[in-house]
Specification:
The protein is an alpha/beta fold and about 180 residues long. It has a single domain, classed as 2-Layer Sandwich (Nucleotidyltransferase, domain 5). It contains seven helices and five strands; from the N terminus they run ββαβαβααααβα. It has helices spanning about 30-45, 55-60, 85-95, 105-120, 125-130, 135-140, 170-180; strands spanning about 1-15, 20-25, 50-55, 70-75, 150-165. It has a five-stranded mixed beta sheet with strand order 2-1-5-3-4, sandwiched between helices. Helix 2 links the parallel strand 3 and strand 4.
């Protein structure tokens, strides 16, 4: 019997600086999105962040509360091509997952962590992929309360592992996620 397991990479990028923040979480839902928002807000506590989101249900849920230094700004419906972080997923897939087979979800997550760190540690690559002319134009016009304003684009990609049901799959992520999700 063939079974699938998934893990999800949440990431956001600031095209102007090439800054990227990423988390690997077990689900795609409002609770995980809230964890991600809170993490980004804490990492950039001194910034005013305008986070450009798409119409995904977990982005628009009434239960999602933007931290005080984040303003959520919705993209037009059906316009994923306007989100530059989608191109970071292409980079991740090409550099880290091309023609690879994993024997466990843990092995896949190890490669995912290394790939995300490699991208995160190369701001010049992030800028070259995401700093589009319309973003440059928008940022050149924004000045809010003399505070640094960051225009950040979040994104999500699903990483799948196919395995036989009787395989020995480590459950460390699921155990950690259970703790996070129950708190």
């Amino acid at each position: 019997m063939l079974t699938h397991e998934y893990t999800y990479a949440y990431a956001s990028c600031e095209p102007a600086t090439g800054t990227m923040d990423a988390l690997i979480l077990p689900k795609v839902n409002t609770q995980c999105m809230q964890i991600f928002l809170n993490t980004v807000a804490a990492r950039h506590a001194n910034d005013h962040i305008v986070m450009v989101i798409d119409g995904a249900g977990w982005h628009s849920s009434k239960k999602l509360v933007a931290p005080s230094n984040i303003r959520l700004l919705a993209l037009p419906p059906y316009a994923p091509e306007l989100n530059p972080v989608e191109h970071l997923w292409d980079e991740l897939r090409e550099k880290c997952f091309h023609n690879k087979v994993f024997s466990s979800l843990d092995e896949l997550e190890d490669d995912l962590v290394m790939g995300l760190l490699a991208i995160e540690n190369t701001p010049e690559v992030i800028k070259s992929i995401t700093y589009w002319p319309w973003i440059i134009d928008v940022l050149s016009k924004w000045k809010l309360n003399n505070r640094r304003t960051s225009l950040i684009f979040p994104g999500l990609t699903r990483c799948a592992l196919k395995y036989c049901a009787n395989s020995d799959i480590s459950s460390s992520l699921r155990a950690e996620a259970a703790v996070v999700m129950s708190s």
